[in-house]
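ok here's Thiolase domain-containing protein:
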Amino acid sequence: MEKVCVLGAGSTKYGKLEDSITDITLQASVDAIESAGIESKDIKAGYISNVFGVADKQVHLGPVVMSNLGISDRPSLSIESACGSGSVSFREAYANVAAGFYDVALVAGVEKVTHTGTEWTTTYFSYCSDFFYEGQSGVSFPGLFASMARAYMNEFKATEEDFAQVAVKNHDNGLLNPKAHLRKKITVDDVMSSAVVASPLKLYDCCPFSDGASSVILCNEKFAKDHGANYIEVMGSGRGGSSAALQGREHLTTIPSTKIAAEAAFKMAGITPKDVDFAEVHDCFTIAEIVDIEDLGFFEKGKGVEAVREGQTKLNGQISINSSGGLKSKGHPIGATGVGQIVEVFDQLTGKAGERTVKNAKIGLTQNFGATGASCAVHIFQSV
Ligand SMILES: CC(C)(COP(=O)(O)OP(=O)(O)OC[C@H]1O[C@@H](n2cnc3c(N)ncnc32)[C@H](O)[C@@H]1OP(=O)(O)O)[C@@H](O)C(=O)NCCC(=O)NCCS
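and the structure:
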């Protein structure tokens, strides 16, 4: 297998955006191409992730994005894997570059939903659950993650204030990210007094609905050395699965797909969780971040909540978790999120993270899952 590098990265701001789904994908992709110091004609294939293109009247985004970049003759793949679509696209591009099919590939992720309003977006998103058992019974994602939160509280004596601290930390980080959706300082009291969405989760325990697009350029090592002053290497890539419906899982306080994906990625990278300096994890709800950092092996089961209480996951704490602001503050445009996490790792490891820089960081990890973790991908990167 060829060694695979990330040569460039770009992102729109996340939030409520006016431009069309195709325009924002183009903006992020042009940024990534410029950041890589290449031309669009250097790209041999495109992997485009999106979930509800139908909301902005455009599906089959692969060929549309390639056409807009002036490379309509190149193959593309339009990929949907719920909120984990972005990392699955990255994995497909990674596998094809590693296998030697292409020397350079574009990964772009996008979502444009806020114009449909909360009721419609909640309905659309519920189609990503196991709809027969969950969505059609009226359980939406806040409700499903609330079940996980209750189980975690019962098993590990965690409190709602503990969950609130995850939100406070991620909003603090998001304040330092000019592209974040919710750039607002909040306190534990703000979280505790915000509206209940699905008990015990309140407004500030939830990620928002966001629009946004993120893109990265992957290439083999030879191309990176010939073209890139600033690139990072992919050390490990892993994917895993879990029962689509929560009722099919043995425990609600762990996400099996994360553990499977992480084990594969760490094995490929030849490192352990202790070697990781920072991570972008899937904090769609505050409880998810606590479960993630345990499943990834950063903390023992049941100890993630203590780490949060002690501030170990703050920027430049023992391990910086979600320096970008995470889904909670940076935002969650679901088809873009997994790619956006890799943009953050690229920025961190190439000295472009500004005020939110993780000091002396050499190794960064991304973890992005679909739905309640039915599918997951983990990637590990190192600076060169
Ligand atoms: C939490 C949620 C229900 C809030 O929706 P809503 O009540 O319709 O909120 P609105 O969009 O009307 O926004 C009302 C205010 O709250 C803010 N807001 C919205 N969502 C927010 C969030 N998640 N966190 C903090 N503030 C939020 C808005 O900015 C707005 O503030 P303003 O009045 O100062 O402009 C919705 O964001 C949600 O369902 N989030 C989860 C998304 C999800 O499930 N994603 C998939 C994960 S698997």
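+1. The pocket of coenzyme A is lined by residues 83, 118, 122, 125, 141-142, 182, 197, 203-204, 206-209, 284, 332 (CB under 6 Å).
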